[in-house]
Amino acid sequence: MKSSLSRSVAVGVLTVGIALIVWTAVSGPDDDPVVAEAASTPTAAPQPAPSETPSTSAAATAEPSATAAPTTTTTTEALEPIPVLGTAFTLSRLDGWLNTEATSLEEIRANNEITVVQFWTFGCRNCKNTLDALGELYADFGDHGVEIVGVHAPEFAYEADVDNIIDAAAKLGVTWPIALDTQKYNFHVWQEGPTGYWPRVYVIDSDNQIRFDRRGDSPRKYRELYQIVDRLLAET
């Protein structure tokens, strides 16, 4: 009886053991919780696409290739020679001088390289328009061998009065020599023909040759006057 019971128990134990072996083989081992947690972590978000902004890397900021830049050649055109327009007249039959101790045009020319002679009258609006340009010329070249002579040839009677001329010259800033051509004798000798002009300006060089002759008050003409004087001085 015991033997039968023992065999029954042994068979039962053997059966249970076999059953456990079979169940374990089918179900597999338990999952590791750490591995499961790691597996459930979301994957990294995709990186955004590169922007359209130009790169600032070393390659992008490198110096451009050494391509030779086009060479610009500066050419200076030769200036036209300043013409000789004839021999200047003298100034005669004058009623005197202002703003100078000289007594003749020849005396003034002898002490200077360039003489600018302008026919004007203080009541003439066009003449007044030129005085700033003459003042600039006088300031820049007066100490460098240039003299201005304003030949005052009055148009009206009140402009012939010496006191009026002196007063007007002071107010207008005329500090250069003034030759008083009260009867307009030189005004007509220098300006041949039936018409004389206020203002009219000449440039006379050291050889008494006329190198510039313009009438009117155009600013362009007086800029040209300045340039001519500058060039003539450079040539002396």
Using brief descriptors, characterize the structure shown.
alpha/beta, 236 residues, Glutaredoxin, 6 strands, 8 helices, 38% helix, six-stranded mixed sheet, globular
Give the topology, please.
Layout: H1 2-27, H2 33-40, E1 97-98, H3 105-110, E2 114-120, H4 125-128, H5 131-141, E3 146-152, H6 162-172, E4 178-180, H7 185-190, E5 200-204, E6 210-215, H8 219-235
Parallel strand pairs: 2-3, 3-4
Antiparallel strand pairs: 1-4, 2-5, 5-6
3D structure, described in words:
The chain has 236 residues and is an alpha/beta fold. It has a domain at 97-235: 3-Layer(aba) Sandwich (Glutaredoxin), CATH 3.40.30.10. The chain is 38% helix and 13% strand. It contains 8 helices and 6 strands, in the order ααβαβααβαβαββα. It has helices spanning 2-27, 33-40, 105-110, 125-128, 131-141, 162-172, 185-190, 219-235; strands at residues 97-98, 114-120, 146-152, 178-180, 200-204, 210-215. It has a 6-stranded mixed sheet with strand order 1-4-3-2-5-6. Strand 3 (146-152), helix 6 (162-172) and strand 4 (178-180) form a beta-alpha-beta unit. Helix 5 packs parallel to helix 8. The longest helix is centred in the first third of the chain and has 26 residues, at 2-27. The N and C termini lie far apart (158 Å).
